[in-house]
Structure to design on (300 residues):
């Protein structure tokens, strides 16, 4: 398996808006977990007139720290990378205070079944942005220009936000320095995810700021490693299925030896995303009532 050069050392402080770079600040929510690392990093871009990216979970303490930390400044935009419950619910409470519009690609495309099985943080099914953004769209924020990059894969509505002048990208959950992203069908899609990674490789951005964990400097080599990792994972699945047909539950241990039990649901769904990709490529077939419980066999 190609080695991904993860960056897991993360310097932050709960409850305090921290200056990270000119025009870039972050407030970290106290929602650490298996999928959120140390918590949701809510970013503030601009000075005086600012935009908030991913207000985070429905957490009054997080909102209070954000509002008090931005006293004297005006929030003009609330940007949401996607509507998982660790990213978007805080937008409603924040909007009630500052009356700024919410901007995102759109609502969640398709809610997966069995959200209670530990696959992710859950979907904010009530999120509907005031303004729908399109790939390549740009808008002004004071002296800053913000570019929208539609990056489906983790979710169909995932959007990254770039500052072209500085080369900074707020990459949400699309690319994170500390971990790979979970792909949860049917809304999450492996082909879309790989295409979105290739899209990022075609750009010349200098630094990614994920919603969870530390920044990623010189991101291209890292993204290349993510792509190689996903293709190798699918090769490993094909190798497993060369011996005998298997269910997803039987693939978890050989593919993820020593996996943290909290991540079993996410791993099973990422395996499913790879299997669906391979089915589409005509390399495997399945039989069964539901995708998670089906039996998969190699046909080529």
């Amino acid at each position: 398996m190609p080695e991904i050069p993860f960056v897991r050392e993360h310097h932050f402080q709960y409850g305090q808006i921290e200056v990270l770079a000119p025009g870039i600040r972050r407030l970290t929510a106290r929602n650490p977990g298996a999928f959120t690392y140390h918590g949701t990093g809510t970013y503030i871009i601009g000075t005086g007139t600012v935009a908030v990216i991913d207000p985070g979970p429905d957490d009054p303490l997080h909102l209070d720290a954000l509002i008090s930390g931005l006293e004297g400044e005006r929030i003009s935009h609330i940007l949401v990378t996607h509507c998982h419950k660790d990213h978007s619910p805080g937008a409603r409470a924040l909007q009630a205070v500052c009356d700024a519009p919410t901007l995102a690609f759109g609502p969640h495309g398709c809610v997966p079944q069995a959200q209670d099985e530990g696959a992710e943080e859950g979907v904010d099914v009530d999120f509907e942005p005031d303004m729908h953004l399109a790939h390549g769209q740009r808008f002004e924020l004071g002296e800053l220009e913000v570019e929208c990059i539609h990056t489906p894969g983790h979710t169909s509505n995932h959007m990254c936000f770039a500052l072209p002048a500085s080369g900074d990208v707020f990459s949400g959950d699309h690319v994170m320095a500390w971990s790979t992203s979970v792909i949860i069908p049917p809304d999450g899609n492996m082909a879309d995810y790989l295409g979105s990674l290739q899209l990022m490789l075609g750009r010349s951005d200098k630094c990614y700021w994920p919603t969870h964990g530390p920044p990623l400097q010189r991101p291209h080599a890292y993204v290349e490693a993510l792509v190689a990792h996903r293709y190798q994972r699918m090769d490993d699945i094909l190798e497993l299925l060369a011996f005998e047909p298997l269910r997803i539950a039987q693939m978890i241990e050989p593919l993820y030896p020593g996996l943290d039990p909290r991540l079993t649901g996410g791993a099973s769904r990422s395996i499913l995303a790879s299997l669906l990709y391979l089915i589409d490529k005509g390399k495997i077939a399945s039989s069964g009532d539901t995708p998670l419980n089906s039996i998969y066999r190699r046909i080529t």
